[in-house]
């Protein structure tokens, strides 16, 4: 393709001239230029200068089956020829959307039997807000509108997504609507020093109860949470947390929504994070790993408690997207599920994670590292100023950024959240990939150490 024959410099200049990136400092990017990724295979990316990177982030937490899957391309090609598009509005449907809904109902936790599709995690969470509020209206408790979520939660970037989320930097930029409340997350390393993890799990779950009492249970629609908070820095809750959350939701009659956008589809060693933590949600949100990022697709799975009312008493549900249940996206997702099943990716990655954990213990010894926390194929390396005193850096995010840049230079893609180095590798990572990850990360940590001791 002729347009591929530009130099890196030309791409970067065009990019700066015409392209506004998501979550980016435009001035800084214009100075440095983008790292332009041109192809990928397995767990490796290649950029426009033919440099290779080990992708320890699965793209943006989504390429669970790895890159270069011809089957996924082939089903998309076939489906596009047969039926590239039709909608599911007004009493029509397409076969891939029905098939996928049925398959998801089989693997989803609890009694979640119905799917509502959309194209991104953010949209799916918008659907959650619309549907949950509709549910309480139909139950003749219309005051129950407020959602409780956590600080550092990430639920997307649309207006409802950002409001559900707990990122103050996003709220400050025109993002927070009324009717959304945030409580302390179960982030033990940062907030829990005086307690055991088990005590801290109960303590933070009880923050939800305090918030309910403050606002009044008659005004609360739902609690929403990621099983493990991903973009917030891979915050892994103590084992005591979710059982207590579940209890509180039941006691105060509020719906429990679990955002499985990252944790779903094998990330934590089971199909869903809800399985890993034994959560019984009323609704879950799915995206990312549902199609391994090969094509945009998301959805929610809804349990009997909500669907019974919605179907019996609901009349028209005035909500939906042009691309809800897009046949090409659903066909790709079905094939993606098939790969996960046939290659035993969930069980295998869960086994491989034992080696990952073992090697990460070496990383935990590094003088820059406060703790390494992980669950199967997701984790974080918390960089700190003083390891013994568990003292974090005064200016958050600087050292994380430095380390992230060294990783990139060394051919390793990791992400920095504040001063945590995040890993979330494709489920096909093997022991050799893990060795490469650990060696490159060690080198980057040493370079970071050097860098900050000189400045
Ligand atoms: C990425 C993410 C979203 C938003 O998904 P988009 O497809 O970017 O809109 C929502 N929730 C969680 C937990 C996520 O990680």
Account of the protein in words:
- This protein is 43% helix and 16% strand.
- Strand 1 and strand 2 form a beta hairpin.
- Helix 16 packs across helix 17 (431-454).
- Strands 4-10-9-8-7-5-6 form a seven-stranded mixed beta sheet, sandwiched between helices. It has a four-stranded mixed beta sheet with strand order 1-2-3-13.
- The protein is globular.
- The chain is an alpha/beta fold.
- The protein contains 17 helices and 15 strands.
- The protein has helices at residues 8-18, 26-32, 58-61, 70-82, 95-107, 121-138, 159-164, 168-171, 188-191, 197-215, 241-251, 273-276, 304-313, 327-342, 345-364, 398-409, 431-454, and strands at 37-41, 44-47, 52-55, 112-118, 146-150, 180-183, 220-225, 255-259, 283-286, 298-303, 369-375, 378-383, 412-413, 415-417, 420-423.
- The structure holds pyridoxal-5'-phosphate (PLP).
Q: What is the percent of helical residues?
A: 40-55%
Mean residue pLDDT: 97
Query: Would you give the CATH topology of the largest domain?
Result: Aspartate Aminotransferase, domain 2
The largest pleated sheet is described as: 7 strands, mixed
Observed structural traits:
16% strand, Aspartate Aminotransferase, domain 2, alpha/beta, 2 domains, 7-stranded mixed beta sheet, 17 helices, binds pyridoxal-5'-phosphate, 15 strands, 455 residues, 4-stranded mixed beta sheet, Aspartate Aminotransferase, domain 1
Layout of secondary structure:
Blueprint: H1 8-18, H2 26-32, E1 37-41, E2 44-47, E3 52-55, H3 58-61, H4 70-82, H5 95-107, E4 112-118, H6 121-138, E5 146-150, H7 159-164, H8 168-171, E6 180-183, H9 188-191, H10 197-215, E7 220-225, H11 241-251, E8 255-259, H12 273-276, E9 283-286, E10 298-303, H13 304-313, H14 327-342, H15 345-364, E11 369-375, E12 378-383, H16 398-409, E13 412-413, E14 415-417, E15 420-423, H17 431-454
Helix pairs in contact: 4-14, 5-14, 6-13, 10-11, 15-17, 16-17
This protein binds pyridoxal-5'-phosphate (PLP).
Pyridoxal-5'-phosphate binds near residues 155, 226 and 230.
């Amino acid at each position: 393709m002729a347009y591929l024959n530009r130099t890196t410099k030309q791409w970067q200049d065009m990019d700066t001239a015409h392209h506004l990136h998501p979550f980016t400092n435009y001035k800084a990017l214009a100075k440095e230029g983008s790292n332009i990724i041109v192809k990928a295979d397995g767990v490796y990316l290649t950029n426009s200068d033919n440099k290779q990177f080990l992708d320890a982030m699965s793209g943006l937490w989504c390429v669970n089956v790895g890159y270069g899957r011809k089957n996924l391309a082939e089903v998309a090609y076939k489906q596009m020829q047969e039926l590239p598009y039709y909608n599911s509005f007004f009493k029509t449907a397409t076969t891939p959307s029905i098939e996928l809904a049925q398959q998801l109902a089989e693997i989803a936790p609890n009694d979640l039997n119905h799917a509502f599709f959309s194209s991104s995690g953010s949209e799916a969470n918008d659907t959650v807000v619309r549907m949950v509020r509709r549910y309480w209206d139909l139950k003749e408790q219309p005051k129950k509108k407020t959602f409780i979520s956590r600080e550092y939660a990430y639920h997307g970037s649309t207006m409802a997504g950002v409001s559900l989320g707990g990122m103050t930097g996003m709220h400050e930029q025109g993002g927070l609507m009324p009717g959304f409340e945030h409580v302390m997350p179960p982030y033990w390393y940062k907030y829990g020093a005086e307690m055991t993890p088990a005590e801290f799990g109960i303590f933070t779950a009880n923050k939800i109860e305090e918030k309910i009492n403050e606002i009044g249970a008659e005004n609360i629609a739902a609690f929403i949470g990621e099983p493990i908070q991903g973009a917030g820095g891979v915050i892994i809750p103590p084992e005591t947390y979710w059982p207590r959350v579940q209890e509180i939701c039941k006691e105060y009659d509020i719906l429990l929504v679990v955002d499985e956008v990252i944790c779903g589809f094998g990330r934590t060693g089971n199909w869903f994070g809800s399985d890993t933590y034994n959560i019984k949600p009323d609704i879950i949100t799915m995206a990312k790993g549902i199609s391994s990022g090969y094509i945009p697709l998301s959805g929610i799975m809804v349990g009997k408690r909500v669907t019974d009312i919605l179907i019996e008493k609901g009349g028209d549900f005035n909500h939906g997207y042009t691309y809800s249940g897009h046949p090409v996206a659903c066909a790709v997702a079905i094939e993606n599920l098939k790969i996960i099943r046939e290659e035993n990716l969930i069980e295998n990655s869960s086994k491989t994670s034992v080696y990952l954990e073992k090697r990460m213990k070496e990383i935990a010894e590094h003088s820059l590292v406060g703790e390494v926390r992980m669950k199967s194929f997701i984790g974080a390396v918390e960089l700190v100023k003083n390891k013994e005193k568990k003292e974090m850096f005064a200016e958050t995010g600087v050292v994380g950024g430095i380390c992230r840049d060294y990783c990139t230079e060394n051919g390793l893609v990791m992400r920095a959240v504040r001063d945590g180095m995040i890993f979330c590798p494709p489920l096909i990572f093997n022991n050799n990939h893990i060795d490469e990850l650990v060696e490159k990360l060690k080198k980057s940590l040493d370079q970071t150490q050097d860098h900050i001791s000189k400045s």
